[in-house]
Structure formats: C-alpha cells, structure tokens
Amino acid sequence: MAVYKQGILGPFSGKVGTVVGASWRGVPYIRSVASKVADAKTAAQLEVRNRLSAVTRAIRPFLESIRHGFINAGVASGWPQAVKVNRQKATKTVGNEFQLLPQDIIIAEGTALFEASASLSGSNLTVQWDAPTPYDELYGANVYVAVLNETSGKALNYSADISAGETTLSVASIQEASDTDVLHLYYFAATSDLASPSVHQALS
C-alpha cells in the first residue's frame, strides 16, 4: 500500500485506470485494482464437491460409531479418515452427481478380527458373537452396532460389552412400515486403541 501526500486538488479517491484511491483512518492511499477471480465452478471442482457432499451425507448418521471405528486415524473424531475411506467408495451417477450405496459404507477401519451373526424379528435385532478370552486382542472391547433404514434415511448407533456374547436392541425408532423398510446392519469391535473393520449385512 502506497501512502501519498495530498495535491492541490485534495486526496485522490475512486478508480482511475488500474489504481484505486481511498483512505484508512484519515490517511489517503492508493492500491491496484483487485484482479478478477477465475470461475470456481469448473467441472472438475464440481465433481470433487459433489462426491464429498454425497459421502458426508451418507456417513453422518454413523458419527457416534465412527468415533470408535477410526481410532488409529490420528484424529480424535475419526471423521476425516472416515470421509477419505468412503470417498473412494462413492460412485458416479448422472453428470457430476455421486452416491454412496449403503452396502459400501465403512464405519470402522482396523486390523483386529471380529465376526458376528444377526437376526431380526419384528423390531428386535439380536447380534451374537464369541466372547473373547483374556488372551485375545479384543478382550475388554465394546461391540458397536449401527442400523440404517435406507428407505427413511434414519439410523441408530448402539454399543455393548464384548464379554456379553450377544446384544438385543429395538429398531422400532427407525422403522416406518415393516413391509417397505430396507434395513442395513453394520458392526465392529474396538478397544481404546484397536478396532476391527466394519461388516455390513442387509436385514430382511
């Protein structure tokens, strides 16, 4: 910023050619005219934005589970790593639009091994697994269960002590109509510093 002394006609203000005259706290100055910013809506930029939007919209209902599923990501919430991993799963639909299908959603990333089985009876979902022994890496862990109603977009997040061997929860709060609901189950186990990959199962 250049400061100049007033001439015989007083301070210069306004735009003349490529410079603009103004004052700040009573001190007159001149500056160059701001250059125009290029259009920020190129096809490539729109594609990146739409992909990110589709991913964040799809995984936001699982935020509580994601906090525990990406514990090795170096970020307390695990959210940035969850977005990064799921971004690779998003598929292009029409034009620059993207979608992340329920069966492709990942809510936990890890190396520990954990398997369970699930059954749905009305509004009651039962998840069962083999409880670990004190010598297993997941001993003392929690089991995290998330259920998504694809039809309504509603989801619930739930956790249970892994030593229990099973848990039963009600999904009534996310059910709309039993004959049209499409439910998806996701589960994993995690300690404070170790997690298993999330597993997806479609519920009939």
3D structure, described in words:
- This protein is an alpha+beta fold and 204 residues long.
- It contains three helices and 13 strands; from the N terminus they run ββββαααβββββββββ.
- It has helices at residues 43-59, 63-69, 79-87, and strands at residues 2-3, 14-16, 19-24, 27-32, 91-92, 98-99, 116-121, 124-129, 142-149, 155-161, 166-170, 183-190, 199-203.
- The strands form four sheets. The chain has a four-stranded antiparallel beta sheet, with no helix packed on it.
- A hairpin with a 2-residue loop joins strand 7 (116-121) and strand 8 (124-129).
- Helix 1 (43-59) crosses helix 3 (79-87).
- The longest helix is centred in the first third of the chain and has 17 residues, at 43-59.
- It starts with a strand and ends with a strand.
The stretches of 5 or more residues where confidence is low (pLDDT under 50) are none
State the secondary-structure class.
alpha+beta
Helices and strands, in order, run as EEEEHHHEEEEEEEEE
Mean pLDDT value: 86
> Sheet bearing the most strands, described?
4 strands, antiparallel
Q: Treating each run of at least 4 consecutive H or I residues as one helix, how many helices?
A: 3
β-strand amount: 25-35%
Bulk shape: elongated
Q: What is the straight-line distance between the termini? A: 69 Å
The assembly state of the depicted protein chains is single chain
Q: Report the radius of gyration as a whole number of Å.
A: 27 Å
Secondary structure layout:
Layout: E1 2-3, E2 14-16, E3 19-24, E4 27-32, H1 43-59, H2 63-69, H3 79-87, E5 91-92, E6 98-99, E7 116-121, E8 124-129, E9 142-149, E10 155-161, E11 166-170, E12 183-190, E13 199-203
Antiparallel strand pairs: 1-4, 2-3, 3-4, 5-6, 7-8, 8-11, 9-10, 9-12, 12-13
